[in-house]
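Table S2 (continued). Query chain:
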Amino acid sequence: MIWGLLNNTTFSYKGKHWQVPPDNIRWDHPKTKMLAPDMVENDILKKIGIAPNTLQDPKTIELMVPFTLSPNTMRWAAGEGAMPIVFTPIDHILRSCLDAYHNEALKRDPKIKWGENVGHFRDIVVADTDEEAFAIGEQALGYIWTGWHDHFGFNEALRLPGETGPIPNTYRTMVDRGYAIAGSVDTVARKLEDAIKTYNMDVLVPWIGVGPGPVDKLLRSNELLVEKVLPKIGVKLEQRKPVLRKEMREETWRNRPFETTKIIKHAVRQFLCAGHKKHRWTEIGRELTVLSV
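Corresponding output:
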């Protein structure tokens, strides 16, 4: 369904579990009938679409599957060429996820390396000292996680092998079990470098939960991460340039102002030959003759 919507102006789908649009949705909107007539049949909605559509060429859009720690989901993502974002720092679960993805991904790409094309969620807080970073994180994502997320079972991502019963619902647990990386520049650099090497991390997704945390210190944490920590471990950030849809790469009248001006002047001359009145109008520094009709 996602690919269908990305690749088509209008789209419909009926599968075993999902259908878009549902049956018998009445839709008599006049603009829909005028601009997208294939969406409606006898005032019943037959197709849907994304409005506005993506600027990027759908073939270049990365499909990501967030919040997973299931080997089955990892295998499905590998089969689809999607990037799963793993939600656990626990070694044996993480390795089983990476193994599942890699074994399936090899069928698509025999050269893919273990850990490649998999993202990892982490809470990262950097400050002058380990103690300050912990205090900041405890008020930020530590507050949100322990106050809300635990209620929905998020702490299962932190369960150790053989552990039974409730998991301690504290920010200390998040830090000690490796989900939250909080500390000084040196501490965060050491822990981050170790995680990257151990799991051949291809993508890291920092989860920045503000909550009642100090915004100024969280902003500074981001600056320290980018300006101090990443250079320290040899990571260079690069901004990917998007590949636009074909129709977005083509020139429009906005890119051809002189040609547009010539067309307007030609039309004006044609009307003036017919004896229409005229007045002057200046636009974008050019004096154009337009009609009074």
